Amino acid sequence: MSTTPQPTHHEPDAPRDLVGIGIGPCNLSLAALAHPLAELDTAFYEQHPTFTWHPGQLIEGTTIQVPFLADLVTLADPTSPWTFLNYLKTRDRLFPFYFAERFHIHRAEYDAYGRWVAENLPGLHFRHQVDAVRWNPEHDLFEVDFTQLDKNGETEALGRTYTQNVVLGIGTEPHIPDPLKPLVQTPAVPVIHATDYLDHRDTLLAAGHITVIGSGQSGAEIFLDLLRNRPTGREKLHWLGRTEAFAPMEYSKLGLEHFTPDYTRYFHALTEDVRDRLVTSQWQLHKAIDTATIAAIHDELYRRTLHGGWPDAVLTPGVRVRTAGRMATTKIELHLEHTQQNTRSRLTTDAVVLATGYRERPLDHILAGLDPYLRRDSRERPRVDDQYRLVLDPSVTGTAYVQNAERHTHGIGTPDLGLAAWRSATILNSLTQKEPYPLPTRTAFTTFGLEQPTTPALKGTPASW
């Protein structure tokens, strides 16, 4: 017997200090750093039943591309109980980790660490889908409407909470190129995004011919995993990428300083058109392949030549998919264009893996109630100030922060795990108008620019640009 869901409310006379929307690594970092601040009443909502971090890409042996110090809290507070090292301590694994001498941990281990924090940190509400955020001028508060879900994902209850501040950490979503969207929507022949790779791995390995599209780290890891599990001489693999080469990630020590707060401040102070040009030109800083993976691919290909012959694997960069379609019920035809040669060809395949990356989830739906107050740039993107605050009309006395939705204003370090704790600390310093987390004024040997942006003050509200 069905019943009408009953609404629950957190009354406006007892508003929260902060409500977080989404519990991925960014907002989990914020929640962990907010935990010891007793003066803050916080709540974080997530529609999924548990914390997960790209579960479909936790391929055995793959590692995260930042050092373990880029956990949720260490680079802001190494004494926090929520550090990765403390996680190891609770699992009696400090000595094994010490002797393993691992600076870059396995992805599966980072996922397990995040779940440990999420399972033990108070104030996190899973199976809560946030439906709308509005500004209530009568109460001078944000209203956050949510739906509480049962274990089957069905509506269990409706709720509303009031808060002085909100932070949006809804993350990214898989990017499907337009020519391939119709194929993904009709699953008779497997065309899957890399985010779902492990769920479909057995089906893919059973396919006659497999094509991997995407020349970044995910594409490389998936190609390597497929290669290692296909018979020698009968690999039947194609790996295609739009970039001019299967290029190594820029991982020099000075190159990595593009992922420091110093560079973030420099980037934010640039004009909008310069920022847009930079983001597209810096792909090798964050979208290329680490050298160890490139070496492993070459080693595996070379091993397959030891007894003569070449592996049946084609690796072609500089290629884009113009159009795609199904042939009968069992094949896919990709219409390809080589951008440098200006030539075209067709490729018939039995399965496609789209390692085509992620895009920031649009904020328009969830922020529809704030639209009259939002200040936007020339391309209709929300403006974000140097303390990660959405620039709103001055009549809005509350603050809306964003996490991993500000690449257009803060640069390529936006999704980087290494900057998560620093951004969370910046938000909490701004929110409390204090400095619970003192942050360094200098973080790089490189001086970016001739004129240096000033360190933001803690007090004040975002300007109405």
Question: What do you see in this structure?
Answer:
The longest helix has 14 residues, at 107-120. A hairpin with a 5-residue loop joins strand 6 and strand 7 (155-163). The protein contains 13 helices and 19 strands. The chain has helices spanning 25-34, 84-90, 94-100, 107-120, 181-184, 197-205, 217-228, 261-268, 272-281, 283-286, 291-303, 407-410, 420-432, and strands spanning 7-10, 18-21, 42-46, 124-126, 128-136, 141-149, 155-163, 165-168, 172-174, 191-193, 210-213, 237-240, 313-316, 319-327, 331-338, 343-349, 351-354, 358-360, 399-402.
Tags for this model:
single chain, 465 residues, alpha/beta, five-stranded parallel sheet, 13 helices, 25% helix, globular
Summarize the SSE layout with pairings.
Blueprint: E1 7-10, E2 18-21, H1 25-34, E3 42-46, H2 84-90, H3 94-100, H4 107-120, E4 124-126, E5 128-136, E6 141-149, E7 155-163, E8 165-168, E9 172-174, H5 181-184, E10 191-193, H6 197-205, E11 210-213, H7 217-228, E12 237-240, H8 261-268, H9 272-281, H10 283-286, H11 291-303, E13 313-316, E14 319-327, E15 331-338, E16 343-349, E17 351-354, E18 358-360, E19 399-402, H12 407-410, H13 420-432
Parallel strand pairs: 1-7, 2-3, 2-8, 3-4, 8-19, 10-17, 11-12, 11-17, 12-13
Antiparallel strand pairs: 5-6, 6-7, 9-18, 14-15, 15-16
